[in-house]
């Protein structure tokens, strides 16, 4: 009986012209979004590889100069695009794609596509994630709002129940029928997406993304299942199909349109961030006057001089067996690192708190949990941006220390007149970045994982309760 009900529901949906037109529209949007994501990924990945190679050549061919001048010469680190960014671009457009690494400074990321976006584009960019998070739930609502309420209005529901069809079996069969109809849209889109990823991957990155892909697919299937069971539960209890449609459309508007913006604004109010100008000013003050405001650079340098002379048992800088200028530069660098760690640590903790509030709000709107998890699995969330930023900063500190240490050991009394060539530049390895694994991602998204599970369980319970109390009047 269950499969007969499911087959009947599937057949009726497929034969319905409204479903066919809606399905074609959604499928075309999904295909278009995947196509645009594929094009963007290929272009950006090619630019990334070219830029990386150019930066390495830029560093190796900088000519003869002082090691510390080379540290100031610096180079760019470019954040790689992940294969699944084809589906969900996340916050990449707002966080920037590269950062300049140089001595004495921890720079902000540059080249944010959102800064160059037109006013129309800022309303939202067509991506596969947007279509899956907003359009598919709307289609589910249009397919299911009259599944039970409409049959009750037509008198069909009373006849079915009088034949001995169990209410729970009827509801489950309709859910399976709707799921089958959705599969007619999702299967072609999934095949297209996998083909696009396979065609895009020419570096082997896709081989390490299968687990992420599988989890992302399971995430969206769970999300669609939530909308199916919630929609059927409302249809079972609503006084009419029109009332069911109004309730479900209200839920869709709150979930997909109102909640994301409202929660973002609330999170910013709860955990406000300083302006870029105020942040930069505070960092410069701390570098010049000390973290506590009472330890200026001149005082620190004088204390370092006394300490170094005592360490080597000499009374004059000229008698040191090492280069004091290099020691002073590295000491200033390490003090600056403490300032940067404190300033950026506070800033990033604020962003982490905002994200935690955003994830927790998934209790009100499931799309918030889905968005957080989708970006995490795609490698385009803030946590993985922060992970890359930390890796780039560690590389910057290594590069600067290597240059200063070389100056300490070899410059003698030449100070900044000491020159080196490409042999020293080659001692600095190429910057390489590895994405964190899936367990790391899920660990950062544990709230979203739990809440999407809560929504799935709550939806099933609601459907079971509603199906046992299906209105027949």
Topology (SSEs and partners):
Blueprint: H1 2-15, H2 17-60, H3 67-73, E1 75-78, H4 92-95, E2 98-102, E3 105-106, H5 128-144, H6 149-154, H7 156-162, H8 167-200, H9 210-237, H10 241-270, H11 276-289, H12 297-312, H13 324-360, H14 366-378, H15 382-410, H16 422-425, H17 438-444, H18 446-468
Antiparallel strand pairs: 1-2, 2-3
Helix pairs in contact: 1-8, 2-5, 2-8, 3-15, 5-9, 5-10, 8-9, 8-18, 9-10, 9-14, 9-18, 10-13, 11-13, 12-13, 13-15, 14-18
In short:
The protein is an all-alpha fold and 473 residues long.
Mean pLDDT: 85
How many strands, which pairing sense, and closed or not: the largest β-sheet?
A: 3 strands, antiparallel
Instruction: Tell the overall outline.
Output: elongated
Beta-strand content bin: under 5%
- Side-by-side strand order of the widest sheet: 1-2-3
Elements, N to C (H/E): HHHEHEEHHHHHHHHHHHHHH
Unreliable parts: 114-123
Structural class: mainly alpha
Q: Would you report the number of β strands? A: 3
Distance between the termini: 24 Å
